[in-house]
Amino acid sequence: MFGYIAPVLSVLTDEQKQRYRSVYCGVCHALKSRHGQSGRLSLSNDMTFLALLLSSLYEPETAQATARCGIHPVKKHPFCSSSMIDYSADMNALLFYWKCEDQRMDDHSLVGKTGETLFRKAAKKVRTLWPAQSVAVEQALSELWKEEKKTVPDPDRLCNLSGEMLGAVFVPKLDDMWAPVLRSVGNSLGRFIYWMDAWEDYDADHRKRRFNPLDVYHDRPDYEDFCKETLELLIAEAANSFEILPLEQDLDLLRNVIYSGVWQRYTLITEKKQKQRKEDAHAE
């Protein structure tokens, strides 16, 4: 996954931090129990957000426990387990597999090849457990890869296909009354992540002569403002759908992520770019 959907830990209360970590560790334990020790390599904040969101909406029976692990080898740490955390762990493994496959196809990277091999069995298992979500992810990625190979790819279509992929992942219960709203939240977040990832990777992609969907916009004089306004539009759509859901548990924590946390990487990268421009100007 991409790591954009994370909380701003510095402004959380101690209780909220402990709650977030217990779910984060819960997803980690679920990855191990359902996909083996290597499953933990895929752990992401993005799917921890999904676990919190689905747990708040569906309020599944949740167990609390403590355990030691490789990251906490001495002191036991608390973690939660529930059906929604298990589901989020499965989606974590599925998306990680396809991310590795995408990397392998893009630049034949060792990380991509290794990850694709390690998580092939997990992806196959998830396809059996959650066929609708798995097929939707595969179809969206297949269409996305085809679009990227066109002479003039359509950035809107690419963005929307990424949204369709995450929209499917956000719906564990296909016939539930909240399924369309959850799909809308995931869809908007998926488009936000695609755009953010393209914006963040632009310079590296340009240096390595890799495809980037923002190529067609980069020469605009208002390129940076255009990218930020697009990101604001996409995350506003996600927030609008999110606020429709009847959530109570962890609501402040979830709002922390969707209103503030998603901008952490953007702020960090913008500051780096500004610093680099000042250094370049000084060198001249």
Describe the protein's architecture and organization:
There is one protein chain. With 284 residues, the chain is mainly alpha-helical. It is 68% helix and 4% strand. It contains 10 helices and 2 strands; from the N terminus they run ααββαααααααα. A two-stranded antiparallel ribbon has the order 1-2. The termini are far apart. The model has no long low-confidence stretch (mean pLDDT 92).
Features:
68% helix, mainly alpha, globular, 284 residues, 2 strands, 4% strand
In short:
This protein is mainly α and 284 residues long. Helix content is 68%, strand content 4%.
Helix-strand blueprint:
Blueprint: H1 14-35, H2 45-58, E1 63-67, E2 77-81, H3 83-107, H4 110-129, H5 131-148, H6 155-169, H7 179-207, H8 223-242, H9 251-260, H10 264-283
Helix pairs in contact: 1-2, 1-3, 2-3, 3-4, 4-5, 5-6, 6-7, 7-8
Biggest sheet descriptor: 2 strands, antiparallel
What would the principal axes of the Cα set say about the shape?
Answer: globular
Q: What percentage of the residues does DSSP assign to strands (E)?
A: under 5%
Strand order of the largest sheet: 1-2
Q: Based on helices, strands and strand pairing, what is the structural class?
A: mainly alpha
**What string, H for helix and E for strand, traces the elements in order?**
HHEEHHHHHHHH
Radius of gyration, CA atoms, in whole angstroms: 19 Å
Number of helices: 10
Helix proportion = 55-70%
**How many strand units?**
2
Note the gap between the termini. 39 Å
Low-confidence stretches are none
What's the pLDDT, averaged over the residues? Answer: 92
